[in-house]
Design brief:
The complex is a heterodimer of chains A (about 400) and B (about 350). Chain A has about 400 residues and is mainly α. Helices cover about 65% and strands about 5% of the residues of chain A. A two-stranded antiparallel ribbon of chain A has the order 1-2. In chain B, about 65% of the residues lie in helices and about 0% in strands. The chains are: A mainly alpha (about 400), B mainly alpha (about 350).
């Protein structure tokens, strides 16, 4: 602050040197990098200082130093009895959470690692990035799912269904918020799909779209095809073997299956979003609405100028959790298209890919895939942090 | 009050005046008010229609599931499906009760699967609750070296997708030869960092003076936890219990990976192919089937599948009806299914 003042002071005889913008940029960049390191350094330093800090004696020994050695030791131990409380969780996490992280990192760099081989000791062909290369190239030689196909499927399904269902949830919550009677009943019915099993309801949705029978003797074309038939659209084999798809290079774009999966995801994703958005709308201070009414604002103005900004945090929260959940979807796909995830895994998802390779016994590829899933999720989190930080909220 | 009323009228009058549909230059407050009222009613009706359509669409899959589960297969396959079944074939449920997990194996019945699910669900919920409560308590109230580091480490693991753990855990379990047991279904999911975090925050909100008062009265840490903290955070604990049980009920992937069919859970049973087959244990005598060989031995029967789906989904719906408050609160707090 001080420096800035001095620079703008007209009396000072040495005006600051004007760098051109590139130099300025690099000076700023340098300062920022330095700041970053200083921040990290202080954080780490504080961490260790805290770790090895000698507690003042009175924290452990209120009676003073005349206690015997055994007594002092006992008291010291007693002050650490919290470890006893966290021990069960800590042991479980060490085995089932912390160790797996390390194992995943190690395993993904052991090329063609197969855990079950060699009497359960595992076998691999040296160290390196071979797993990643093979997974990305689809060159695993096992007839399993294709990583790029799975990635594209997951991204398409997520980035189409999440915004759509959030928008629909927003509309429904606005409608719910504007009515006065039987609000609770609507809310309960709309929340019902939440508490269901993705697999089970996936199977129900599949029956809506399924064509049963042979090509020559079709028994039923399913409700959706019947409804489409009213508009003169020929029956489409939505989930079956003859499901229409586009081919781009070696990749399949099974658009009919995409539509089925997206409809299912919107249906199953709505309840939670409505719950969050509706309760957020209910908690908005009524004074804002009264003020708007006095000013003669229309319903749309109120919606876009008051309601929407007030629930912006919830909307971004829903988008983030929705995208995170979408990246990890699996059981809905199994419910809809069976354990093989469509035909030749053409509806495979990222998580489906991992399980596919675990079941094939190719642990190394599964590890590599899981690390890539982790990196993708981290990238999305990072982008999201960048985007949401800029939003201003009125809360 | 009257003053406010007048002002409201005036503002509406302005709207009415600039409304092009009004048409007449002469301004009539009463007429404008009436028009406004009609517009509101129409809007309300549209809103109700929209909500009703949404509610019907949200409910339709459940209706279809229940109705399909009691149809005969012939009726289910009619080219124009019936909205309400002509005949209720409750035998479907009998058939499904005695159906094996998949068409290839005949080792697990529905009873076995249900027992598995209940045992694992109850044990993992209760044990998990104990672990969560004592850990959250220690993190919230007790002082020990490295507490904050431990907590930070725990929170950091939430960033990592659970699938990354599953692969290593699968190998660990195989190496320890723990496959085909309840232990393997329970142990890896006892600790749930998110619930620990949630409960810790809940515990932190309880004022410290209560703790000191309890200490003065000679209550131990454990006694304080049981007698003061648990009753005070009961709503959160109930929500956590319910959500955890639902999560176990819905678990699919892990049981499929580590256990064979007779040790799996109820969702694994749903994905099995449900085909018409001879049921030796039927009460109608031996060799009882629904359709004989009409649909072939390997063709899946969707009505049977829907009956199975009903048996998995309906308990959850019943649970929801009875515990709506706790479940909705828990969900809006945690945003997870278990």
């Amino acid at each position: 602050m001080e420096e800035k003042k001095a620079n703008t002071d007209p009396i000072s005889e040495t005006p600051p040197k004007e760098h051109n913008r590139f130099v300025r940029y690099f000076i700023n960049l340098g300062a920022r990098i330095k700041g970053w390191f200083v921040d990290k350094y202080t954080a780490v330093k504080d961490f260790f200082v805290e770790l090895f800090r000698k507690r003042p004696k009175e924290e452990f020994e209120p009676e003073g130093p005349q206690l015997s050695r055994g007594e002092r030791f006992r008291r010291g131990l007693k002050s650490q009895s919290g470890w006893l409380f966290v021990a069960p969780a800590l042991i479980l996490m060490a085995v089932f959470t912390f160790y797996p992280i390390i194992a995943a990192f190690i395993g993904s760099f052991q090329q063609d690692y197969i855990a079950a081989a060699n009497q359960g000791h595992g076998s691999f062909n040296g160290w390196g990035f071979g797993n990643f290369v093979r997974v990305l190239k689809g060159d695993t030689g096992t007839g399993g799912a294709d990583f790029v196909q799975c990635l594209v499927n997951t991204l398409v399904l997520t980035f189409v269904s999440v915004p759509l269902s959030t928008l629909l949830a927003l509309l429904i919550s606005v409608a719910l918020n504007s009515i006065k009677k039987v609000q609770k009943a609507y809310q309960t019915i709309l929340f019902l799909p939440y508490l269901t099993n993705a697999l089970a309801m996936g199977a129900v949705f599949a029956t809506f779209f399924k064509i049963i029978g042979t090509a020559s003797n079709t028994e039923t074309v399913g409700i959706v095809n019947i409804v489409l038939g009213w508009f003169g659209i020929d029956p489409i084999d939505w989930v079956g073997l003859n499901s229409p798809h586009w081919e781009i290079g070696s990749m399949r774009i099974p658009w009919a299956k995409y539509i089925v999966a997206i409809i299912y995801e919107i249906w199953s994703g709505l309840p939670f979003k409505i719950l969050i958005l509706f309760s957020a709308m209910q908690s908005i201070n009524k004074q804002y609405y009264d003020a708007a009414k006095v000013d003669g604002a229309s319903r749309w103005t109120v919606l876009w100028k008051i309601t929407a900004p007030m629930i912006m945090p919830q909307i971004s929260y829903l988008l983030v959790t929705g995208i995170m959940g979408g990246m990890k979807q699996y059981s809905a796909i199994v419910g809809l298209f069976g354990v093989t995830m469509g035909q030749d895994y053409d509806m495979g998802t990222m998580v489906g890919y991992l399980y596919n390779y675990i079941e094939l016994g190719q642990t190394g590829y599964a590890f590599a895939g899981s690390l890539m899933l982790f990196v993708i999720i981290m990238i999305i989190t990072w982008i999201n942090n960048k985007v949401t930080k800029k939003r201003t909220t009125y809360r | 009050m009257p003053k406010l009323f007048k002002k409201k009228n005036a503002s509406e009058a302005v709207v009415g005046k600039w409304d092009l549909s009004a048409g007449d230059e002469g301004f009539d407050a009463e007429k404008a008010q009436k028009r406004e009222k009609i517009r509101h009613v129409i809007k309300d009706i549209l809103v109700y229609i929209f909500l009703t359509v949404c509610a019907v669409l949200a409910f339709l899959p459940f209706y279809w599931m229940i109705m399909s589960s009691v149809k005969t297969e012939m009726e289910f396959r009619e080219s124009v499906p019936t909205f309400f079944p002509h005949t209720f074939q409750w035998k479907n449920y009998w058939m499904v009760f005695h159906q094996a997990t998949s068409a290839t194996s005949s080792s697990a019945s529905f009873g076995q699967i249900l027992i598995n699910t209940l045992v694992v669900g109850i044990l993992s919920t209760l044990l998990g609750l104990v672990v969560i409560v004592i850990t959250a308590y220690a993190l919230a109230r007790m002082e020990f070296k490295g507490k904050n580091i431990l907590f930070a480490l725990m929170l950091a693991t939430m960033m990592i997708p659970g699938e990354l753990f599953t692969i290593s855990n699968y190998i660990t379990v195989a190496k320890a030869q723990m496959n085909n047991s309840y232990t393997v279904l329970i142990l890896p999911f006892l600790v749930s960092v998110y619930y620990i975090y949630l409960l810790r925050n809940n515990f932190m909100q309880i004022p410290n003076s209560l703790y000191q008062a309890a200490k003065v009265d000679g209550l131990s840490d454990m006694g304080y936890l049981i007698k003061v903290m648990i009753p005070l955070t009961a709503p959160t604990l109930i929500s956590i219990t319910l959500l955890r049980f639902i999560g176990t009920w819905n678990s699919y992937i892990w049981p499929r990976l580590v256990n064979t069919q007779s040790w799996q859970m109820i969702t694994n049973w749903v994905t099995g192919g449900f085909v018409d087959r001879i049921q030796p244990t039927s009460p109608w005598g031996d060799n009882w089937t629904l359709y004989g060989s009409q649909y072939g031995s390997s063709q899946p029967l969707d009505t049977l599948k829907m009956a199975a789906v009903c048996m998995v989904s309906l308990p959850l719906l019943v649970l929801f009806i009875f515990c709506r408050k706790y479940i909705m609160r828990g969900v809006s707090k945690s945003g997870t299914k278990g």
